[in-house]
Amino acid sequence: MSNEHVSHVVVPGTFDPITYGHLDVIARARRLFPKVTVAVAASLGKNGTGPVFSLDERVEMISSALADSPSFEGVEVRPFTGLLMNFCHEIGAGGVVKGLRAMTDFEYELQQADLNYRLSPGTESIFVMGSPEFGYVSSSIVRELAALGSDVSFLVPPVVAERLAERFGAAR
Ligand code: PNS
Prior knowledge:
Blueprint: E1 8-13, H1 20-32, E2 35-41, H2 55-67, E3 75-80, H3 84-91, E4 95-100, H4 103-119, E5 124-129, H5 139-147, H6 158-168
Parallel strand pairs: 1-2, 1-4, 2-3, 4-5
The structure holds 4'-phosphopantetheine.
């Protein structure tokens, strides 16, 4: 293991779309590390279906959401394709920060962290506990509610609620 200090971390995800839960994790990562890059995976999507929003749309929504608050000063947003560990090397990030909501997240995250360790033992996997307020928030819940016409403004920043309304005709 290297003794080098980690000062730059990545918060990776598909962000389809970004939620208040993600923003909470990004703000926590920024409190802990001076440099944070939000890495937006091109992703084939879960269950073989592609993301609802294009990579460009997801990057744009995240950038707008981050612009609203000083907690995100110095946070960069970048799309990536391929392996997360390669992307970390490319931008010189020494760790990956992810949020844990519940035990159900743990198994999935442990599997990814183990795999990433195999690929790049020097890159730290760091987990933060999200605010309990957002414990039930996920992008898939947001997509489902929006598709069913529900108001989702309590789960996502205004820019995302607007985009979902355009996409699904959801109430705002
Ligand atoms: O928000 P998500 O969809 O749970 O994020 C998953 C993500 C994008 C972090 C993960 O799928 C990922 O790292 N994808 C890039 C490809 C890769 O490196 N795969 C091997 C590690 S799982």
